[in-house]
Amino acid sequence: MSKTRGALPPGQVQTNKFPAIHTGPIPTVDLHSWRFRIFGMVDQEKSLTWDELIQLPRYDTTSDAHCVTTWTYADNHWEGVAFHTVMSIVDVLPEANFALVHAENGYSVSLNIDDLLREGVMLAFKHNGETLSPEHGFPVRLIVPHLYFWKSAKWVTGVEFLAEYKPGFWEQRGYHPHGDPWSQQRYRE
Ligand SMILES: Nc1nc2c(c(=O)[nH]1)N[C@H]1C(S)=C(S)[C@@H](COP(=O)(O)O)O[C@H]1N2
Ligand SMILES: [Mo]
What we know:
Distance between the termini: 36 Å
Number of strands: 12
Structural class: mainly beta
CATH superfamily: Oxidoreductase, molybdopterin-binding domain
Number of helices: 3
Shape: globular
Bound molecules: the ligand Nc1nc2c(c(=O)[nH]1)N[C@H]1C(S)=C(S)[C@@H](COP(=O)(O)O)O[C@H]1N2, molybdenum atom
Largest sheet: 7 strands, mixed
Order of helices and strands: EEEEHEEHEEHEEEE
CATH topology: Sulfite Oxidase, Chain A, domain 2
Number of domains: 1
CATH architecture: Alpha-Beta Complex
Helix content: under 10%
């Protein structure tokens, strides 16, 4: 159990209702055909099935969600699998410094590997004790509590390891490459 929540970052306003924000429709995901593909700069690609994912050691954390559009929804309890556990299934090549986490409908987020290995970063399938709802990412989403919430991709399908930084969906559209809410890295200069 780790706790990464704290004070309100600058420029954020707390909301009492959990907003559901995404581009495109809410996908319908079948657990039997669901796969989480680990590919790119790894010794050998791996495609995790749903059963394989949920058999990994469990992890949970309580954290706040800071959207770049200034709302913060505090105190979310997430349960799932730590991202470092998922990464330990493969050997990530030493030249890899960055990753793209891919999701349904062409959404993706850019992250450096150090951020993926931070405390609280996980693939979550439960929120506040309940199965993730379709609008919040069923069956599983990424949680990166120390960065703006656009990095917490819903409906994830895989992770691609890369030598160089490659912008994801919002990073291509002017969002900051890193996205630290404490230093208000909202948009690219
Ligand atoms: N697949 C996917 N994940 C996504 C998005 C999206 O459009 N598609 N939007 C991001 C943004 S901008 C935010 S603020 C959060 C919102 O998560 P919520 O709907 O659970 O509040 O999801 C992030 N993850
Ligand atoms: Mo957002």
